[in-house]
Write a structure and sequence with these properties.
The complex is a heterodimer of chains A (255) and B (406). Chain A is mostly helical. Chain A has 2 domains: 28-224, Cytochrome c-like domain (Cytochrome Bc1 Complex, Chain D, domain 2), CATH 1.10.760; 225-255. Helices cover 44% and strands 5% of the residues of chain A. The model of chain A is unreliable at 16-21 (pLDDT under 50). Chain B is mostly helical and 406 residues long. Helices cover 65% and strands 1% of the residues of chain B. Chain B has helices at 7-18, 21-29, 45-66, 74-83, 88-115, 124-146, 151-162, 171-179, 186-215, 235-260, 290-298, 302-314, 319-322, 334-355, 360-387, 397-402, and strands spanning 34-36, 232-234. In chain B, helix 6 packs antiparallel against helix 9 (186-215) and helix 11 packs across helix 15 (360-387). The longest helix of chain B is centred in the middle third of the chain and has 30 residues, at 186-215. Chain B is globular and about 70 Å long. Chain B starts with 6 loop residues before the first helix and ends with a helix. The mean pLDDT of chain B is 96. The chains are: A mainly alpha (255), B mainly alpha (406). Chains A and B meet through helix 1 and helix 8 of A and helix 4, helix 5, helix 10 and helix 14 of B.
Chain lengths: 255, 406
């Protein structure tokens, strides 16, 4: 039995190693509040991250899978969510059949900053700013640390490296030969936090990354919580099953 | 003590006389199925496979209720399952990781069969049906992975279906037929969804035959010798109790991954919507296909690579005859035992190679690994069976148990 558990553990431990090695320098590691089996989101951090998204990212990046109603996860009340949604406008066709606009509702999703892909590319030197809803899961196995590192990974290119027109050197952007179409966005005091938190660039990068990880994995807390209960239940079941098995097999010795 | 039967008992007996379901179950996994008393924990994996099949079908049915098999909506519908469907995330993570765990269990089950010679006379047909189940599982897993319509779904489907174009003359027509068009497109997604729903029930049917074929000779055992009636104990309650404990241990590992590291085994790129215009730099299948992918890419010629890849599985059909030893259990086969572990290492090396780009060291290793894979089956196994002097077999299971070797 031990051998089998060890074998299974070895398979699980090796499987990420089996994957192609991800090139590039070692990522900066942040002790995220949502790390580990008991990790939870820091609501105030998510609210700050939302502010960063709206003030910095949203001018180029969509967030297609997040609706305003989802913001209740961040600790906002129904009224606050309505107020946020109201700040956006959505196209509508009125009763006469003419184009008009209406104010956003909690059931609306964050609007796309561009009407279409061609427009987006034309506005961004040919590059398409990706949707951010799943970006902490789709880019790297260690997603949040990758996004955090990427946001702060801008520096002067190494000597001899030619960076293309309109591109920036980023030491963590290995998938794109270290040349990224997004210019450095995170600067100290780029935002003025509503809750008075000092807006260092590390703080801003952490806040937006945490927010994006919530956007990618909104059920993380429910999953961690359920996991604990499921594991406890299964553990008790397993112990009882072991005792039952021992008791039943003891009958054989008596024969 | 009252001899009066309760209403429930009488109702049960009334029903048994008309349709003996209780008696049937009792015969298959109950008190009427005698199993050798020395089965170790490696024998837990058969029932674990059955459990995984049930978990996959059950979670899959709920996923299908909320999934849209259309190229424009598939990815979005999966995200809707993850975000808006009540406990949709549990169903999807159980299903996606369930595929991995199903393969872990099936690989251990196959290894157990190889170690204890469970494929040998009189269990060859049982072994064959097992390989058919394995093939059906691979097809099911491949098509299931296409359904979320992420980047790796799309490009994995493109690469694997394109393999058939290596077949001379009719290859291209076969690929067009598989796709339902001239590239991996909406018709491909539709038929894969349909077949992905169908195949698990085909597997279920094959499992019925697998268990049927098992019950004629009965279970093999770690000693590999015939079990006399005196060496057998009823499946229920002994092995049902033992299986329950195994299920518990297995679930602890499975649930730890589902709830605490659900994306550990998957490729991050599949969280990006399929885009036919952007080819990923490195297209890799899920981990359980990596050894076969390594064999495919080890051979420079496309057609030969495809033949080698399918051959690496089909060769298992001939295993009962390639292994010329009549001794079943590796416990009594000093040489075979070592070569079997070498074979396991070979598979592990191929798994690693399958995830790397086919160049440099990984390519050399995958060629050596592929060569060894076929060498093991085609040359080594027959020779070992001829030259090996097996250790003396115990006269009976009871004798071995008394000597502390059971």
């Amino acid at each position: 039995m031990k051998k089998i558990i060890l074998a299974a553990a070895a398979v699980l431990a090796l499987s990420p190693a089996v994957r192609a090695a991800e090139v590039g320098p070692e990522l900066m590691q942040v002790p995220w509040s949502f790390d580990g089996a008991f990790g939870k989101f820091d609501r105030l951090q998510l609210q700050r991250g939302l502010q960063v998204y709206r003030e910095v990212c949203a001018s180029c990046h969509s967030l297609n899978y997040v609706a305003f109603r989802n913001l209740s996860d961040l600790g906002y009340s129904e009224g606050q969510i309505k107020a946020i949604a109201n700040e956006y406008e959505y196209p509508e066709i009125d009763d006469e059949g003419s184009d008009t606009t209406r104010k956003g509702k909690p059931s609306d999703y964050f609007p796309n900053p561009y009407p279409n892909e061609k427009f987006a590319r034309a506005s961004n030197n040919g590059a398409l700013p990706p949707d951010l809803s799943l970006v902490t899961k789709s880019r790297h196995r260690d997603g949040p640390n990758y996004i955090y590192s990427l946001l702060l990974g801008y520096e002067d290119p190494p000597a001899g490296m030619e960076v293309l027109e309109g591109m920036s050197y980023n030491k963590f952007f290995s998938s794109g030969s270290f040349q990224i179409a997004m210019v450095k966005q995170i600067e100290p005091d780029k935002v003025t936090y509503a809750d008075g938190t000092a807006a260092t660039q590390e703080q801003i990068a952490q806040d937006i990354t945490a927010f994006l990880h919530w956007a990618a994995e909104p059920k993380l807390e429910a999953r961690h919580g359920a996991g604990l209960r499921v594991m406890l239940y299964t553990l008790i079941f397993t112990v009882l099953a072991y005792l039952l098995k021992k008791r039943i097999w003891a009958r054989l010795d008596q024969k | 003590m009252s001899t009066e039967k309760s209403v429930l008992q009488r109702a049960f007996e009334w029903h048994e006389q008309r349709l003996p379901i209780g008696g049937f179950i009792d015969g298959v996994i109950g008190t009427k199925y005698p199993a050798p008393k020395n089965l170790n924990y490696w024998w837990n994996f058969g029932s674990l496979n059955g459990l995984m099949l049930v978990i996959m079908i059950a979670s899959g049915i709920f996923l299908a209720m909320n999934y849209t098999p259309h190229k424009d909506f598939a990815f979005d519908s999966v995200e809707r399952i993850m975000r808006d469907v009540n406990y949709g995330w549990v169903m999807r993570y159980m299903h996606a990781n369930g595929a991995s765990f199903f393969f872990i269990v099936v690989y251990i089950h196959i290894f157990r069969g190889m170690y204890y010679g469970s494929y040998k006379n009189p269990r060859e047909v049982l072994w064959w049906i097992g390989i058919l189940i394995f093939l059906a599982m691979m097809a099911t897993a491949f098509m299931g992975y296409v359904l979320p319509w992420g980047q790796m779904s799309f490009w994995g489907a493109t690469v694997i279906t394109n393999l058939f174009s290596a077949i001379p003359v009719v290859g291209d027509s076969i690929v067009t037929f598989l796709w339902g068009g001239f590239s991996v497109e909406n018709p491909t997604l539709n038929r894969f969804f349909s077949l992905h729903y169908l195949l698990p029930f085909v597997i279920f049917g094959l499992v019925v035959f697998h268990v049927w074929a098992l019950h004629l000779p009965g279970s093999n055992n770690p000693l590999g010798i015939e079990a006399t009636p005196a060496d057998k104990i009823p499946f229920h309650p002994y092995y049902t109790a033992k299986d329950f404990f195994g299920v518990g241990v297995f679930m602890l590992i499975y649930f730890a991954v589902v709830f605490w590291a659900p994306n550990m085994l998957g490729d991050p790129l599949n969280y990006e919507k399929a885009n036919p215009l952007v080819t990923p730099a490195h297209i890799v299948p899920e981990w359980y296909f990596l050894p076969f992918y390594a064999i495919l890419r080890a051979i420079p010629d496309k057609l030969l690579g495809v033949i080698a890849m399918f051959g690496s599985i089909l060769i298992l059909f001939a295993l009962p005859w390639l292994d010329t030893s009549r001794i079943r259990s590796a416990v009594f086969r000093p040489i075979y035992k070592w070569f079997l572990w070498l074979f396991v290492i070979d598979c592990a090396v191929l798994t690693w190679c399958g995830a790397q780009l086919p160049e440099g060291l990984p390519l050399i290793l995958s060629r050596v690994g592929t060569f060894w894979y076929f060498l093991h089956f085609l040359i080594l196994l027959p020779i070992i069976g001829w030259v090996e002097t097996p250790k003396p077999l115990p006269a009976s299971i009871s004798e071995a148990v008394l000597k502390g070797r059971g």
